[in-house]
TrEMBL record:
Highest taxon of source: Bacteria
Keyword match Transmembrane: no
Entry coiled-coil feature ranges: none
Family stated for the protein in its record: Belongs to the D-isomer specific 2-hydroxyacid dehydrogenase family.
SUPFAM superfamilies: ACT-like, Formate/glycerate dehydrogenase catalytic domain-like, NAD(P)-binding Rossmann-fold domains
Originating species: Orbus hercynius
Enzymatic reactions: (2R)-3-phosphoglycerate + NAD(+) = 3-phosphooxypyruvate + NADH + H(+); (R)-2-hydroxyglutarate + NAD(+) = 2-oxoglutarate + NADH + H(+)
Protein name in UniProt: D-3-phosphoglycerate dehydrogenase
BP-aspect Gene Ontology terms: L-serine biosynthetic process
Domain ACT: 341-413
Pathway: Amino-acid biosynthesis; L-serine biosynthesis; L-serine from 3-phospho-D-glycerate: step 1/3
Protein task: Catalyzes the reversible oxidation of 3-phospho-D-glycerate to 3-phosphonooxypyruvate, the first step of the phosphorylated L-serine biosynthesis pathway. Also catalyzes the reversible oxidation of 2-hydroxyglutarate to 2-oxoglutarate.
Length: 413
């Protein structure tokens, strides 16, 4: 149980993995100056120490926020993933502790789509090999195996924010776009949804993955799937490293079944730029290997910094959980001056709301507004009452934390 009635300086923000300076600007302009900033990810021991007194943490895709780490953070009230993927966070452990998790679902999608488009052209023209040879002083002016992208078939696995943007960009090059998704999706332009993954793999000249990491996408491209891809096809993965079996891909390249690949994400990625990187793909000149930089553009990172920092500051200031990925979403109006605001995060069980309302009524306090959302495990209620002095409010907070089922209660103002 955590009770809060804090000054802004008591809210420590722990920002890791070099999130963009725009995040710091947003936090500071919202009055949050207690910021601990690290350029890289922290090892587990250092992270446990740093997170102990953090109220908010900001990470990117590298930092694993397991249950164990979340349990080591007794004050943690909110998590910001300054990226799209939230697979690195134990979302269930977070909600059970009453901690909302926010991300930036759109800001880097264009950057990924543009990188993939570039890779399609480079691989069709065999530029990675020509480039590698030219760097070694070898002039190899040939057209063999070099193709235009125009008229070729692109198969997109996962037609979400990134996949659908890639679809539009690829059509503008004259490519024919097909996609496979577990959901029925509106095909943009002339794209066509294909019913099965294997039908997509058999049909297309380039396959590009744009799915999240989850149990359905784990090793979704392995030996069997690579075998049914067209001879000389190209595989691109800028989704998550767990979706493709890299040993099987290395074999498919070794046997020259595939003509090339571009891989941005790996099952194990170095924690920082100072650590070595190893992969069975390093020996292939026809593979573009990039260090998980699909979303790493100045434009994307700056926008993500603003977007996620704004969500964290807003949650801290007002209790708004709009667009949280694991939490009941409550959007709140700007409160009027004459209001005291309490938050109660509780187990979703009968009687909690009743007990809360009775508590305020029994103290003669008028509830001027109440906002409630629930999810199967957790309920989140924001209560505005006609303003009371701070001592009275603190006393009410103590009562509120004792309501059976309460996970966390906060007094905002
Ligand atoms: N390389 C990088 O730097 C970046 C990588 N990413 C990765 O790209 C992923 C996709 O991003 P968005 O397009 O924004 O996500 P999104 O959530 O908008 O789209 C994902 C799509 O995949 C579909 N899908 C889920 N499971 C599937 C399955 N088993 N088979 C087929 N389709 C399936 C969903 O229905 C959805 O349409 C992210 O989850 C993240 O892991 C995102 C940004 C940057
Ligand atoms: O947005 C995502 O999901 C990404 O994979 C980008 O991760 P990053 O912020 O570059 O660590």
């Amino acid at each position: 149980m955590v009770v809060q009635a804090l000054t802004k300086d008591e809210n420590k923000f722990l920002l890791l993995e070099g999130v963009h300076a725009s995040a710091i600007e947003v936090l500071k302009s919202s009055g949050y100056n207690n910021i601990e900033y690290h350029k890289g990810a922290l090892d587990e021991k250092t992270l446990k120490e740093a997170i102990k007194d953090a109220r908010f943490i900001g990470i990117r895709s590298r930092t694993q926020l397991s249950k164990e780490i979340i349990d080591a953070a007794p004050k943690l009230a909110g998590i910001g993933c300054f990226c799209i993927g939230t697979n690195q966070v134990d979302l269930s452990a977070a909600i059970q502790k009453g901690i909302p998790v926010f991300n930036a679902p759109f800001s880097n999608t264009r950057s990924v789509a543009e990188l993939v488009l570039a890779e399609i052209i480079l691989l069709f023209r065999r530029i990675p090999e020509a480039n590698a040879q030219a760097h070694l002083g070898k002039w190899n002016k040939i057209a063999v195996g070099s193709h235009e992208a125009r008229g070729k078939r692109l198969g997109i696995i996962g037609y979400g924010h990134i996949g659908s943007q890639l679809s539009v960009l690829a059509e503008s090059l004259g490519m024919k776009v097909y996609f496979y998704d577990i959901e029925t999706k509106l095909p943009l332009g002339n794209a066509r949804q294909i019913k099965t993954l294997s039908a997509l793999l058999e049909k297309c000249d380039v396959i590009s993955l744009h799915v999240p990491e989850n149990t359905t996408t784990m090793n979704m491209i392995g030996k069997a799937q690579l075998a049914i891809m067209k001879p000389n096809a190209i595989l691109i993965n800028a989704s998550r490293g767990t979706t493709v079996d890299l040993d099987a891909l290395a074999q498919a390249l070794e046997s020259k079944h595939l003509s090339g690949a571009a891989i941005d994400v790996f099952p194990v990625e170095p924690a920082s730029n100072n650590e070595p990187f190893e992969s069975p793909l390093c020996k292939f000149d026809n593979v573009i290997i990039t260090p998980h930089i699909g979303g790493s553009t100045i434009e994307a990172q700056e926008n993500i910094g603003v977007e996620v920092a704004t969500k964290l500051a807003k949650y801290s200031d007002t209790g708004s959980t709009l667009s949280a990925v694991n939490f009941p979403e409550v959007s709140l109006p700007i409160p009027s001056q004459g209001v005291s605001r309490f938050l109660n995060i509780h187990k979703n069980q009968p009687g909690v709301l009743n007990a809360i309302n009775n508590l305020f009524a029994s103290r003669g306090l008028n509830i001027s507004a109440q906002y409630l959302q629930t999810m199967p495990e957790v309920g989140y209620v924001v209560i505005d009452i006609d303003r009371v002095d701070f001592n009275k409010a603190e006393d009410m907070l103590e009562q509120l934390k004792n309501v059976p089922g309460t996970i966390r209660a906060r007094l905002l103002f």
